Each structure stands twice: as C-alpha cells, then as structure tokens.
Amino acid sequence: MRIEFEVYSDSLADRDIVARYWALTADGKFAENVTDLLPYADIKNSQRLVKYIQEISSAWDTEQACLKCGKFASIRSRNEFRLRPITAAVVCGACRKNKQLEEKRAAEEDATKLRERLVIIAAENQKATIDYSTIDDDIALILIALEKATSPRLLSGTFRRDECRLLAPQNCDSFIQRLSAAKVILDCPAKSAPDAYYLKEGSVLCRESKVAYFLLPDRCKGKNEDAFEIIASREFRDHGALRRLWLDYAVSDCMAYLRTQSNLHALETTNEAEAEICSLLRTALHTYSVAQLWFILWKVVRDASSLSTRIYYNSARAAATIPGKIKMALEKVKKGQIAIKSWSRPDYQPAGTLGDVLCERFGIDEKTAGREVMSLFPLKETNDGGLIEGVSVEKLEEMVCFLMHRAIAYNYELDVILHFANRIRNRDTVEQALDSIFTTYPQLASKQSHW
Ligand SMILES: [Zn+2]
User: Which pTM value belongs to this model?
Assistant: First the structure.
C-alpha cells in the first residue's frame, strides 16, 4: 500500500472516512471522488471534509522515504500526493533544517577558531624582527624597488599585492612571493580583507591577494628611513642571486610584451606553453638583450597570427606553435640566418621600479646584451665540493633553468628535488644527478635534445 495513515479518533465513522479518502485502486488512482464521500455528518463541502480529515489523522507516502532519517514523507491532501514526484529521492524538511543548523554551528565554531589563531599569528608577527644586514642581495634589491613602488607604505604601514603593480612589467606577485618566502615581510591579519583567511583541516590558509603585508623591522634600528639605509647602501656581491633576479625580471619584461602582442592578435597561450616560453627566454637572456627578444617575440606572434587565418588552423592551434617558433627563430639567429633587431620599450610597458633600480645600480636595462649582464655577474667556475666537473657553469645554469621550469609545469617539483638530493647523497656530480632526472622523467627532457 502506497499511503499509510493514522487516525486519532475512536469513532468508527471517522476511521472509515479517512480510509475511504486515502483508498487507492490497483492502478494507483483514488478509488472514490471526494464529492462521493459527502455529506459526512454535518460536513457538506469537500474543502471542509479535507480540513476535518487533516484534524483527526496524519498520512504518509511510503514510496517517499527521507534519504537521511528514512521517515516517510507526510502528505496532507490528495493534491499534495499527486504533485509529489515519485522518483525524486529527497531529504525531509526536518533533516534539511538540522543540516543547516549543524553547518551554521560548524561555521561559527570555525570562525571563532580562526579568530583565535589569527590573534596568535598577529601577535607573533608583530614581535618578529630581522637583521637588515643579513638579507640576501636579490631580496634587498626587491625591497629597494618595492619601497619606491609603494612609498611610503613599506616603511610606515602595510601593502597588498595588487598595490605593487609598479614594481615590474608583469609577475609582480612572484617577487612579493619571494619576499614572503624569505620571511622579510609577514602578514598583518588586522589590515587584511575580512575573507583573507580560512581554516582547512585545522590549518590557517590565506587568499594571498587579500592579505596585507608589512616589512619586518631591523633588530637594532627598527623600521624607518635610517634603518632602511642598511639595505639601500649595502654592497651587492652575490652574483648568483643577482643573475637570477635579473633573469626573473627580464623574463617578466619579455612575457609582458608577449602578452600584449598575443592579445593584439587574439592568440591565447596555455600555462604549459608559457612555462616553455619562459624557459626558452631565460636561456636566450644569457646572450641577448630584452629588446632583442621583443623583436623575436613580435616576429613570432606575427607569424603565428598569419597561421591562424589559414584553413585547418584556429587561434588556439596557432598559439600553440609560439614556443616552437621562438626556439626556431633563436636557432636561426644563432646560425646567422636572421638578423636580430632591437625594439624600443613600448610606452605602455614601463620598466617598473625594479627595472629602474637595476639600471641605477648596475647600469643594465632592456638594451643590455645578456652576455654583458652575465659578465657583470660572473660565477665561480666550480664550487668547493667539486660537484661541478666537466661542465660549464653557463651550460649547467641552462640545464637547471630548463629542468625547474618543466618540473613546475608538470607538477614534479618535489619528485625532482628528492631525486636530485638522493643522487647527490650517493656522490653523483651535479651533472650526473641532472642527467639521471632527465632519464627518470623523460617528459621533462622532451625538448632537451640539443644538450
Ligand atoms: Zn529526514
């Protein structure tokens, strides 16, 4: 029987009328019309009869059990029964309400926990200090540039990532990330957006774009212009760090140009293609200037764009050819088949304060050839552990740059580092360890055949 009911009256007539009201035929229709049940006692119309039945009884649809508590769905009238979709499995109103209450309670508990944790984080961060004289060279240069980009907030207040856009032509976030990883800047929860933090499996996580950061004060001199002089007037000696910073900056300068050119021709490159392009540009920046690479990018995007109008091509397929075209163009330049030109900095793409600082301090800008930059920051030929043998530092740097970009693109960062560490522990040279990675993860090596 599809309808179950209970009558809260001892009168046999009442029990009978409720049974007749809900009685179904074998094919699932109601056995009698409501009008056929009238008159009942002094009740002469159907509406009043239904109301009376509701007063003295309850009824349930036995084919509609709540998914959660298993209770049958209550039905108050024939209409309600007819309107119920038979197949839809649902959670009953009471269970839904309970669930909402539970969720609300859990959210409130989480919010309280989060507030408590943030108070602790804020107090710890406020107490932290660093020694400005021990900050790494690349971090110091980013700070000097950031001070100019956010003046005066770096020394007197807080700043968010989107307020650092003047720092570099693109990828400003990655430079801020570097400061954060070096722990020279920390979060200020009180100044961050209300939804900047959330709890996940007991840990406090943040939405980085909504976090307010502040520069830690110097252990002795605090945080003021005088203390900042320790950073600003230092001598820069770590050539490896300076090289890396220049390459990061120069790649961002090239990628900003590529993005504008691609937008102009409605070409959209994928993340993987961009990682590959970054890696190619980084290698090329050891030789060429940013302005020369702008020329290459301009040429390549123009070629790809003309391809996109051809039959069998579309803009996505054309955009996918950009990394290969860059590689080919650079090879042709190397063989003297293309005369490389140098483009001027476009008005819409300022160098950013980091570019200004690199120019002021080292006289390098978009026109400086990569070869010159590299000779300005020479690396030692071998390290003291004798791990680098039989391979030039330039070649090694090229391999590592390539590997790390591919590893990030394929999400193999951890595997690659652990593999590398393991090989070095087993007394491999750096080159042997790198070769072993390329053999173990051939997908990382697919474009590496020219080594
Ligand atoms: Zn239920």
Answer: 0.70
